[in-house]
Structure formats: structure tokens, C-alpha cells
Amino acid sequence: MKPLFAASVVLACAVSPAPTFANPFETKLANGLRVIVKEDRRAPTVVHMVWYRAGSMDEKDGTSGVAHALEHLMFKGTKNLPAGEFNKRVAEAGGRDNAFTSRDYTAYFQIVPKAALPEMMQLESDRMANLKLDAKEFASEIQVVMEERRLRTDDNPHALVHEALNSVIFQAHPYRRPIIGWMDDLEHLTWQDARDWYHQWYTPNNAYVVVVGDVDHREVFRLAQKYYGPHKAHALPERKPQNEPEQAGIRRVSVKAPAKLPYLAMAWKMPKLRDVQKDRDPYALDVLAAVLDGHDASRFARNLVRGSRVAQSVGAGYDPTLRGEANFVVDGQPADGKSIADLEAALRGEIKRIQDEGVSAEELARVKTQSIAAQIYKRDSLMAQAMEIGGVEAAGQSWRDIDTLLEKIKSVTAEEVQAVAKKYFTDDTLSIAVLDPQPVDKSKPKKPSGAVRH
Amino acid sequence: MRTLIFVLSSLLTSTLAFAGVKIEHWIAPSGAKVYFIETRVLPILDVQIDFAAGAAFVPAGKSGLAGLTQGLLETGAADLDEEHIAGRLVDIGARLGGGADSDRASLSVRTLSSKPEKEAALDLLRTVLSAPTFPQSVLERERGRTIAAIREAETRPDAIAGKRFAAAIYPGHPYGTSPTVESVGAVTREDLAEFHRQHYGARGAVVSIIGDVSRAEAEAIAQRLTEALPAGGGSLVPPEVTKPLRGTIKIAHPAAQSHVHIGLPAIRRSDPDYFPLLVGNYTLGGGGFVSRLMKEVREKRGYAYSVYSYFAPRKMEGPFEIGLQTKREQVGDALKVVDEVLADYMAKGPTPKELAAAKKNMVDGLALRMDSNAKLLGYLSAIGFYDLPLTYLDDFPARVKAVTIEQVKAAFARHVKAENLVTVIVAAD
């Protein structure tokens, strides 16, 4: 092996211990709304985000997709603002805005010149409490949502595979449902379903505001009090745990769709991060994912795409920072002339090698170097910083943990990585989904769907 | 420790030299054009080199050559093999980026600005740019992967639509050519080496640098990266574009949604109508939710999730395109709405209120387009590659504000002629 660059060793020491100074800043309003501000004065712009801790995992069977449908409807009118006006105001301020719905949360954001921040807070505050929902706006917007589903899922073979995979990984836990919702549920969703969702979950005590940019945090706190402060808090619906029963045996599912290359995704059940200080396994699994697929020199790319050439593409992912339950997912397409079975054997072989032989000091050093560099590069983007804060908070941790998370990753040992590889990668908790490619010219157009509503 | 504390505390005190970003420009002794912004706030350095080495310059029958040449730079250079190169980059926390589009090929690196990391990153960049070896075995593998990706793309409605649209609006022009199984299969090592010799020369290369280095350092970096480049390059121009004839192409596919592209070859980056079209397109379909296409197709009728229009100027006439996806049984209705919106806009242009809103968004929103080193790097390379004035960003607000309704109408009439509009529908019944 080539000797390590001395540089990576220097780097590894450069950021410890975590800096102790007061940025970001946090306050909590009397109604329970938390406000987190990170001052970054490089340019006269600001990101304003409102996160609601309500995502598709909080939905009930039969109304899947309502969290995301409501996200769309939040851009319609309020008691004070006609439909279409929200986007117009943001645009005229020189800003950009959008929103996204996940399993765990729904988040709204505007990126604007700093002078527009008060207006953005006023707009978000307005739709936190005053959204106007009616049958007419709903009827048109739900058609848009169905088009979104066709675009992202129904005509996207890999998305169909993941939708099927989630539905077998989880049998009890709400992560089994697609965020965008089943088409049949969308067809039967009503404006009252959306209204109920809004009234249940959109309350200041279930939300937090993240502001990153050229601001003074005291001024932002003052504005938050002015705009968000008057809203009344109300109790949230009870959240049942809905824990997934223990899986005992491999689960397989296959999906037929027009495609050329087969595709394989394998998911093992994993622990998630619960206690930032005391947990060890989630950090070791995070490092394991990076050893397999964290960068261009990682094992999957080196051994499976470039080395044995068994894979056209390959990936690994593990996200321990979430409200629900965690998985370790590896996926890929076999190279021309190779089969799904060849690829599955090769992916299993890579995990087995770590179970048997562990990982090298060089591999650990590389993972650490990558995470340190990533933290520094992240500072070039306001949005990336806001997303980092919002994401950690959504999972129930604090932005105060961000530096600790990095420290913990750096403290993972080779033995710990090998131990989690042995402990968690068993067939008993494995689910496998494959794409069975169908010739395009022989496939029939899908039946018209969503045509019942006009 | 020191590095990070320095970074964080300086975040509180210093700013990007914002109003009037200071772009410095010079010609390196190698002949390369250099564009530079010094900003010391973050301990990072971004460098990008652009060459006139895009798909437009590829010989007939070799489509895919530009992308393979760019892609294989980092798979072998001087005495380093691809594992060495990938490993070194990871060891220093540097990231290589870039790609090849119609006009240009780029290679960029983002690195920490601390000396050992920076030096190692720049050494690697110089080596892969100047002394690529294009290993035969890597070429065979990447040809195979590219061909597999092409075959896969031929099953995807969005990819089919994009490819057929380009071919239809650029008949006989390299802008309309997409890599095929045959053309990629025909690319040899000699082709790669020759394309590199011809198109990766210092003359005509644009070096963009932004970050935590001084002007003197930047000068040394630019020269170091370009002094060993091959002798080719210079002012290369893609062939002339001929406009297509109006027509509709329908392609069968089993998808639930039809994918629609409507458009034509429209403008060169150097065209004086650039600003009227840029400002005018905001109201038509460039301004997201406030655009007319979005309001009529999505907001009022629920026909589509995504509907947009854009101009993508290139060295020669780059495309104007309107695009949308809608469930296949209502594609006729959606097309009718698009036709009406476009015809009305061509005839009347934006209203005074719409024009004012467009200008306000673009002028006030300029800050958003340049609030990171990564975004500014993109401007540096575009200014260099397309010979835009150094004051492009400073002039931007005035140029936008000067646009009139009459100019928008006249520019659309000149560049979006009905007789040249091509419609491609994939998954049509």
C-alpha cells in the first residue's frame, strides 16, 4: 500500500475538540415554537425554513399521501392571501421557495435577499394558522399530485422497486407506505382529509424555524416573537409507537417494469441513533457504509465496478438519524453479461470480507478525512447548513449534537466496524427486491388512473 | 485546531466582497485565459479548467468521444493508475468534478486551502489534464458501461424524449447527435489521445480560480496547470446550425405519462437578444410558479406536475424548449393550452406588471445566484468560455432593467418562429 499522506493525519486532529462558541442560537416561544438561528455573514442572503414534525409516518391507512398533498395545498390561499399570492410575493422579493415532505417531517423554505426575511416570516406565520382549504382547489391540486406520482414512481422502475421493498421490510411500521401515497388512496383523498391533517399537526408546538444567513439572531428572535408568537398551541394527536415486530426470515419481492438492466436492492434492519453520547453501533455502521461506498476509492467502486466488473453501478446507504426504524441498504445493477445472482453474491461477498477480515487503518483514516472535509465544504452553502440543522432536529436530536456526531464518527475503531458487520448482516432481517426488466415494445400502456375526479 | 477556529471566527467578521465582486483576469504565459476571485472567508480553493472539447467537436460516427475523453482523464495519468488517483484524492479530502456538454469539457477540483492538501490536489489536477494515459482496459470497461447505460436510457420515456428532441431540432448537426451503441463501440484509445491533443490545449483553455489564495499564488497555479498541456486548442467554433421545419414526432412507449418537448434552435450566447429572451422567458415558463405556463397548465387545470420553458444559449444556436409530462390520455388537451399560451405570449409579450415582476425577481435575486464560491466559480467559467465582459455581474441589473415589452416581443419573434417549432411526444396514443 502507498504510504498515507501525512496530510490526512494532520486533518484528523484539526477539528478536535469541538469549538465552544455560541453560533447557532436557539430560543423557544411561549407557544412551543423553537427558533434556531445560525449567523453566516458571507453574503447578503438568508435561508428561512419551517419544519413540521409530521410526515408520512404519521398518516393512517387509507389516507396515505395526505402529508404530501397538504404540502402542495399550503401554496394555495389563506384567509388573508389569495391563491398564488405566496409564490408571487417570494418571487418579487427576488427569492426562491419550495417545500418537501419526508417520512418524518414536512419542511418549507425560502431563500431570499436578507431584507425580505420579515416578509417571509409573516407569510409562513400566516399559513401556519390561516390556510383556506376547499373542494375546488383540492380537486385541481390532487391531479397535480397524481401527475407527480406518475412521474416519480409509476414510470420510474427503480422507484417502484423501492416502494415494493419498503412494503415488505415493514409490515406494521408506517414506513411501509410510500410518502407520495398509493394511487388508489390519492384517488379517494378528500379536501376534508387534508383539512384534518392541517388542524392536527400544524401548530407551533409541533414546528421549529431554522434561519441561516446574514442576520443578527436577536433580531430574528424578535421577528419570530412578532410573527409566530401570537399563534396558539394545541395538543397533538397521540403518536403510537407502531414498532415493527422482529423479522425472522428473508423476504423477497420482485417488480416487472419496462427496462433493460435488472436492478437489485437489499435491506437489513439496523439500530438507529437513540443516544448521541452512549450509542456506538450506529456510528460504526455509518463508517461501514462509507468504507463500502463513501467515496471514489471505496470498496464497492474499486472492487465491484472497476475490479471484478460485476456491477454497472452499485451503492450503499445507512441513515441512523430518523424518527422511525433504520435500514442498511445496498443496491446496484449487474454489468452486461452478469446476472442479479452474480451481483447479489458479490455484494454479500464484500460484507462477508469485512465480517471475516475487518477494515484497515487506511480505510478508517479516509472515512474520517472525508467527513472532516465535508463539514468544511458545507460552509459554502447556506442551504446545506440549514438542512443539516433541520434534519438532526427532525430526528429528535439537537443541532448541538452536530459536532459530537462528527467526533463520534472519528472515534470508531476497526474492531467496532467488524463487530457490527457480524452482528447485523444476517439473512433473518434481510429483505431483497429485484427489478425484472420487461421489453418496452411488449409492455402495454398502464390503465388510465385517477380519471374519476374532474 | 487553529484552522477551524480561524475559519469560524472570520465568519463573523468578514464577508465576500459582494456588491461588485472583484474578478481579476489575465493571460497565463501558457496562453490560457485566467479568471480569479480572492475570498479568504473559508479555507477552501476551487479551480476549474474549461476547454472547447464538447460533443460539438467530435468527428462523425464517434459520438460519445467527448464524454469518454473527459471521463477517462482521471483513470490513468503519467505513472498513476486509477486506484492511485482516486486514493490520493480521498486521502487529501479533495473532490474532482466536471463533465462534457455540447460545447465544453471541464475538470474542476475543490480542496482545502491548507498547503499540503492544496499542493497535492493541484499536482493531481495538472497530471490528469496534461498526461492522461487512457488505459485500454479502462476504456473497454467504460465503453461497456456507457453502452449499457445507453441501452437502459432507450427504455426511459424522459431519456428517449430528450434524445429525439435534440435529433429533431438539430438535423445533421453534432448538437443533435447522441452517443449510440455503435458510435461508443467505435471509440478507440487513439481517438481519445487525439481528441485530447486537439482540444485540451492551453490556448483556448479557461482557468477559473476562487478561494483562499492570493493573486500571486493564483498566477502560479494557472501556469502550473496549463504549462504542460498539449499544443492544440485555440478558437474552435462548432459548425453552423440550420433550423428544422415545423413538425410533430410521436414515439410509442407504455408509460403512464406522455413526455412532451416543444422547441427549436434559438440563440447563441453572444446574441444581443440574450437579455430580452432571458427576462421574457421568466414570465412565459422560467419563473416557476409565477410563470404563465405553470399557472395555466398546472395551477388552473392540474395537467402536470412540471411544466417549464427555457433558453439554453451555446456557442452556436442553443435550444429553446417547452417541456411537460402529463397522463397520456390528456396530452392533447395539455398541448392545446401550451399552444395558446405561447401564441398569446408571442403576440402580446408580457404585461407591464409581469415585466416589472420579472425584473424585480432577477435583479433582487442576483444576490442568491452568487452567494457561494461554487456559484461564483460557475460564473467565472461562463464569463471566460463565452467571452462575456468582466463586468457581467455588475452590469446584470442594468441590462435586465433596460428590457422593454417591445424588445421581448421582437426577440421572441426573431428566435421562436412557428415555422421551425418541433414537437416530440413520447408515449403518445
Task: Summarize the entry for a quick read.
The complex is a heterodimer of chains A (454) and B (429). Chain A is of the alpha+beta class and 454 residues long.
Give a written overview of the molecule.
The complex is a heterodimer of chains A (454) and B (429). Chain A has 454 residues and is α+β, with helices and mostly antiparallel strands. Helices cover 42% and strands 18% of the residues of chain A. In chain A, strand 4 (96-101) and strand 5 form a beta hairpin. The radius of gyration of chain A is 23 Å and the shape is globular. Residues 1-20 and 449-454 of chain A have low confidence and may be disordered. Chain B is globular and about 60 Å long. Chain B has a 6-stranded mixed sheet with strand order 1-2-8-3-7-6, with helices on both faces. In chain B, helix 10 (274-286) packs across helix 13, helix 10 (274-286) crosses helix 17 (405-415) and helix 12 (331-348) packs across helix 17 (405-415). The chains are: A alpha+beta (454), B alpha+beta (429). Chains A and B meet through helix 1, helix 3, strand 5, helix 5 and helix 11 of A and helix 1, helix 3, helix 4, helix 5 and helix 11 of B.
